[in-house]
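ok so dumb question maybe but i'm new to this and my supervisor (M.) told me to 'just get the structure for histidine kinase' and walked off. so i did the thing. is this what she meant?? sequence i used:
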Amino acid sequence: AEEALINSEKLSVAGQMAAGIAHEIRNPLASLKGFSQLLKTKFDKHHDYLDIMLTELDRINGIVQEFMALAKPQAHEFYEDHDLVQIIRSVMRLLETQAIMNNVQIKLNIGSDLTITRCEGNQIKQVFINLLKNAIDAMPGGGDVEIDLQPHRNQTVAITIKDHGVGIPKEQLEKLGGPFYTTKSSGTGLGLMICNRIVEAHHGTISFASELESGTTVTVVLPVTEKSI
Ligand code: ADP
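this is what came out, is it supposed to look like this??
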């Protein structure tokens, strides 16, 4: 298995880019979408072309939104105590339909007593949404995804998400977390970059181990508090 620790340099560049362009793109995009929708109601013909335009506009919109999430300033004073188990369970519920449709079972094992972390709850939720979606996408034929929480050194918890999917080629492992690497027809290649940025802001780490045609294990390490909620 090959391991690659995502490095932080990729992020700051991407973050700066994001801050600069995301807002500027959003307004013209909204008017393009509005007028395309209007054209659809005015014309009887060419609905197929207009549908393609609307789909592609949505795709651009998705990219812009992900970039804006990336550019969002991190404000530690708004952090609150959240239970990672609750966050992960809510993500599992959120992706339940998608998992069922893809014949994927998601299993959760809690091996750590300490699971409370000081964080921005929605951002940590976003991390697990992205990682779990990737795990489901990696198994077109279905299978199990195992999520496991274990105590880790220095008051941290290690959350592993293990799939038995297609795996990631060795030469791509080190590029993970850089923008726009995607193997999916409708992917943005931004999911992991966002995960990386969020986890880092929470003083955690994220790493990947993967073997082709055997599967991928993503490990997120986050600080935990002694408290219970
Ligand atoms: P996206 O999902 O939009 O492609 P991501 O940044 O989340 O963007 O992922 C980038 C790429 O990394 C994916 O397209 C895929 O090729 C690869 N990848 C990520 N997670 C996994 C995984 N669990 N198994 C296999 N490949 C993965």
